[in-house]
Amino acid sequence: MMNFGVFLLFLIGLTATHLNNPPVFAKPGETIHVPCVYQSQIAMHFSWYKHEPGQNPMLISTIYKYDRNARFYHHFENNSRFSVLNENGVHHLVIRNIQISDSATYYCGSAYSNVMEFVEGTELIVEGLKSNTVVKQHAIIESQSGDSVILTCTVLNQNCVGNHSVYWLIHESQESPPRVIRAHGTSIDQCDWISEAGFTAHRCVYSFSKKELSRSDAGTYYCAVAACGEMLLGNGTKLDIIGSTEQMMTFVLLSIGRTVLLLITIATVTVWYCMNSKKSVERELFSA
């Protein structure tokens, strides 16, 4: 158990840091590297902490700046799945053979003199198969440029009822990976129980709104839900922005139509003027 002084330093470090690192999604059995990069040359000792919701932060390891091997604590000691890579100012926590129980936020701390500092935490979310959870999204939504749209994500769960951490990701093209655009954090809003044809489940509905849509907002939006020790990804909602191209084409066609009509009018007036002028000359000749 972490003593009160260290825990207080931990909280002070957290309040002084912006926890804006994107979450890391992993599947059981994978290996990940959680990086920790320090620019300061003063820090001499580094440490890793694991923080699970509702629990005190747990010390994983400590290492001296110039050492190669870290010292591990608690159940991380003699656990070959955890190791520390310490070189060239980069302090990696390596987790092998990822397990569902590894889902947590990991913080890297540095110490010099009597000062303890922390950098941004990295939330690790491990996909699991512990409960019958279903994440549903609308397959496709079409919206006009300039309009607003609300994307919804419905989470159905039979065996496990608890708080959900919901993330929204967008996949804009095949060339780029999905990126996190919004995190709901922990919420139990808009939840109820449903029962249909003998099927009973806890249902939560989450929404994500975008205003003044433009063509750059087009893409596939995924709802990622972390609940009860597992991570599930929705099937994705494809957002098509219509209206920009169509409106441009309509404007171009109308412009071409007006131009053609103007040219026809000018040509008609010119021909009429020429014919009338010719008739006037002929009349004058005959009169003479």
From TrEMBL:
Pfam families: V-set (PF07686). Residues 1-26 form the signal peptide. Its main location: membrane. It comes from the Eukaryota. The keyword Signal applies. Keywords: Cell membrane, Disulfide bond, Glycoprotein, Immunity, Membrane, Signal, Transmembrane, Transmembrane helix. PROSITE patterns: IG_LIKE (PS50835). One of its GO terms (cellular component) is plasma membrane. The chain crosses the membrane at residues 248-274. GO terms for biological process: immune system process; response to bacterium. Residues 29-108, 146-225 form the Ig-like domain. InterPro entries: Ig-like_dom (IPR007110), Ig-like_dom_sf (IPR036179), Ig-like_fold (IPR013783), Ig_sub (IPR003599), Ig_V-set (IPR013106), TCR_complex_component (IPR052051). It is found in: Cell membrane. This is Ig-like domain-containing protein.
